[in-house]
Write a structure and sequence with these properties.
With 401 residues, the protein is α/β, with parallel strands linked by helices. The protein is built from ten helices and 20 strands. It has helices at 21-24, 83-98, 139-143, 145-153, 217-226, 241-248, 261-275, 288-291, 316-333, 351-365; strands at residues 12-15, 29-31, 35-39, 47-51, 57-63, 68-75, 109-114, 123-128, 131-136, 162-165, 182-185, 190-195, 198-203, 231-235, 253-258, 281-285, 301-304, 338-344, 369-375, 394-400.
């Protein structure tokens, strides 16, 4: 672990003329193309001071060799001390506590730190009933892991018995940085959480992301309101959380589909934990597009919650085509009066682009389609108003006649 005293080197980065505007508007990223000159030789994750080309300090951030070259921690002349991590992690917890997101009796899973939304770019921490699962997306956060861990151990009113660093696949290996997934506190690799009173088994070592898609909590509750007496198809079901809520809402029949056998096992386990041997639930390990070829008139509530089709801007077009194809299949085949919950979790896909691809899908079917709800991420996934890219989750609830 490097110490925090990287400022001793006084690495100073000067931006090109006109490239200071986004920092003056508190956008937390500096792209490599905006840099005019680097004084010194910053290592991956070093703290650097950023100036405009008239010598005015714009802020301090973590340096990284990549298209996002600097992630800003402070703006103006405010420096970065060791207490920054403890202060911001504590502030993040206080926000969740005030929002009532932690209730040991009914809900004990939430996002504790949401990167830029909590003033800690490059850091995600999800909380699962005593376990804090960390994902870092920047070398600077990786190098300050000890401060992050210390902050987690000292949170007032939030028990933390397990800390797991799951950054192997979110951080590229660079000189001096060899990320590996590992336990930093405790011995557990899985646990059970409560969400709105429903039980879910979560394995942070083997699961996708940090083990569970906490960001859909409110959208699952919304689905529950529509589920009564309907035949529900939950595509890309992963852990079966939408299926559990649909069954809880009184669905007549629920089918869960995922291409991963592990996901199907997890779905069956979660359904059984909440409803025992639910005879109106079936799970299928199958390719989504193949399964949707022939579902005509079988379902009147369909959930489409695919993994991110577009990780990067350059594959955006293919992704939008994918969303269009998939939504068109569902809209064509859903029963009259059916409800479609459709999502995109790709940061590269804007709310507007997502709506356009769903619009194009609907237009191709010629059916009457109305938007009932527009969905986003919940309050434990806050978006800095200066960083609209943080709003990655988009969803629509459509009524199809």
């Amino acid at each position: 672990m490097h110490s925090m005293n990287t400022m001793d080197k006084q690495v100073k980065i000067v931006l090109k003329s006109g490239k200071d505007q986004s920092l003056r508007r508190r956008h937390p990223w500096v792209f490599s193309g905006a840099i005019k000159k680097i004084y010194g030789q910053p290592a991956e994750g070093d703290l650097v001071e950023v100036y405009d080309n008239k010598e005015e300090q714009l802020g301090t951030g973590h340096y990284q060799d990549g298209s996002i070259a600097i992630r800003m921690l402070t703006f103006g002349e405010v420096g970065v001390g060791e207490d920054l991590y403890a202060t911001r992690v504590t502030n993040a917890w206080n926000h969740r506590r005030q929002e009532g997101l932690y209730d040991p009796g009914s809900g004990n899973a939430f996002r504790l730190v949401n990167a830029e939304g909590d003033g800690l770019p490059g850091l995600i921490i999800d909380y699962y009933n005593g376990a804090a699962v960390i994902q870092v997306h920047s070398a600077g956060m990786f190098r300050n892991m000890e401060h992050i861990v210390a902050a987690l151990k000292n949170l007032d009113g939030l028990p933390v018995d397990t800390i797991y660093n799951k950054s192997k696949h979110t951080l590229p290996e660079k000189p001096g940085i060899q990320p590996s997934d590992q336990l930093l506190l405790g011995e557990r690799s899985e646990g059970e959480v409560l969400e709105n009173g429903y039980r879910f088994r979560i394995n942070w070592e083997r699961g996708q992301k940090t083990g569970f898609f906490i960001d859909q909590r409110e959208n699952r509750s919304l689905l529950k309101r529509y589920a009564k007496d309907r035949n529900v198809l939950n595509m890309f079901c992963f852990s079966g959380s939408f299926s559990v809520y649909a069954l809880g809402g009184g669905a007549a029949l629920v089918h869960s589909v995922d291409s991963s056998g592990h996901a199907i096992d997890l779905t069956r386990e979660n359904v059984e934990m909440n409803f025992g041997n639910a005879e109106n639930h079936e799970a299928f390990a199958a390719d989504a597009f193949e399964f949707m070829q022939d579902i005509d008139q079988k379902y009147d509530l369909v959930v489409l919650d695919p993994p991110a089709f577009a990780k990067h801007q350059r594959v955006l077009n293919n992704a939008l085509q994918g969303y269009k194809r998939m939504n068109q299949k569902a809209i064509e085949q859903i029963r009259p009066g059916g409800i479609l919950f459709t999502f995109s979790c790709s940061q590269a896909v804007s709310r507007e682009n997502f709506r356009k691809s769903v619009f194009a899908a609907a237009a191709n079917t010629g059916r009457e389609v109305r938007i009932l709800h527009q969905m986003s991420q919940p309050a434990d996934h806050p978006v800095s108003i200066y960083h609209p890219e943080g709003e990655y989750l988009k969803g629509l609830v459509l009524k199809i006649d």
